[in-house]
Amino acid sequence: MDVLSEILSSVRLGSAVIGYARLAPPWGIAVDPARGAAIHLVQNGNCWLRLPDAEAPINVSEGDIILVASDVAHALSNPADAPVAPIATMLSKVAAGTGCSHSIEATTLLCAKFSLDEGAPHPMISLLPPLIHLTRVQIEANPSLHLVIELLRLEAASDMTGHDIAAPRLLDSALVFLLRAWLDSQPVGGGGWFDALRDKGIARALRLIHEAPTEPWTVNELAKRASQSRATFARRFTRLMRVPPLTYVARWRVNLAARALRETNQTVEEIAHTVGYESAPSFSQAFNRIVGQSPGAYRNSFRMSERDATRPTPRTD
Q: Which of 123, 189, 224, 232 could potentially form a cystine with 251 if both were Cys, beta carbons 3.0 to 4.6 Å apart?
């Protein structure tokens, strides 16, 4: 499995389309920094994105798509200074037929969300920027992304049988193609994913860590495999990945352990040995340090949240 696929495997399937609305100005919606990231597609018209740390509102034009990272509060509006209401309130009005407009100045929005494993995310998730913004030109230049977005648009606006299954699957695919298109657009020397995966030595070290997490990796051994000196390797890895090599190893092991806790009935001791720890206590200590709770508590909280998530999300179109 390539690194991008591994990253996306930490995204929980079953993403849900949460809004499809046509809004006439002035309008504004506020999205709380809740668990889960958001995708917004401007199908018609335009709007403005407001982020807490941005110096000015960002224009999002017709055909653009934006991905706002988890825990980032934001607002969409038209005009830029329009008052905002909680997104749930605005979409409820649309569902009731009181907020939908047929004005030629209206903006048609498709809003969606997906969940990340916030407790033990893939170590490279932290390298995602708070905002990814792809323009209509960039999307149209990427046939795969353009096609899946068009399918998602058609599905979100329909009442066809199987909508509740098809829309989330299309959203998962849209996320894959969106991130791939974003990676392809990154300049050389910008750091993060692009340079890490283009640096032959660092990419080899990452592949080794991912393929053999149970190995007793040391900085010396990883540097040797990367054909770099210890000092050069440690410096380059830390600059590109924003964490030292062995911290990344620990986070990767915990990510694998968290997935096993979610998806299997293995005991904590079995999982500890599977991901490279000699004992359950040492594993539990590392897991608690990175995730903030014990493996057992993590498993229980995940299963409770999954039961809550099985409740169907109401359509708003």
A: 123
Write the DSSP string, 16-62. EEEEEEEEPSSEEEEE---SSEEEEEEEES-EEEE-TT-SS-EEE-T
SS3 134: strand
Dump pLDDT digits (tens) for 89-114: 776 555 545 555 566 778 988 888 77
Sole residue written with tokens 């792809």: 134
Rounded Cα distance between 43 and 65, Å, is 9
Strand partners, 119: none
What is the spatial distance between Cα 179 and Cα 148, in angstroms, rounded to a whole number?
A: 13
Element (H, E) at 92: helix 87-95
- Same domain for 229 and 174, yes or no, is no
Q: Phi/psi of residue 195, each to 5°?
A: -70, -35
Domain span holding position 111: 3-185
Contacts with 43 (C-beta within 8 Å, 6 or more apart), sequence order: 62, 63, 108, 109, 110, 153
Dist. CA 245–CA 248, nearest whole Å:
5
Q: Which helix (H) or strand (E) holds 107?
A: strand 107-114
**Confidence (pTM):** 0.69
Q: Which of 185, 214, 248 is the last residue of a domain?
A: 185
What is the distance between the alpha carbons of residues 53 and 129, in angstroms, rounded to a whole number?
Answer: 13
CB 24 within 8 A of CB 100: no
Is residue 20 within 8 Å of 223, Cβ to Cβ?
no
Q: Which of 160, 185, 210 is the last residue of a domain?
A: 185
**Residue 73: both structure tokens together:** 């509060």
Check: CB of residue 70 under 8 Å from CB of residue 118: yes
Q: Rounded to the nearest 5°, which phi and psi values hold at 147?
A: -65, -45
Residues 182, 164 contacting (CB under 8 angstroms): no
Q: How far apart are CA 116 and CA 110, in angstroms?
A: 20
Dump pLDDT digits (tens) for 114-147.
765 555 556 666 667 889 999 999 999 999 999 9
What's the number of domains the chain is made of? 2
Contact 27, 78 (CB under 8 A): yes
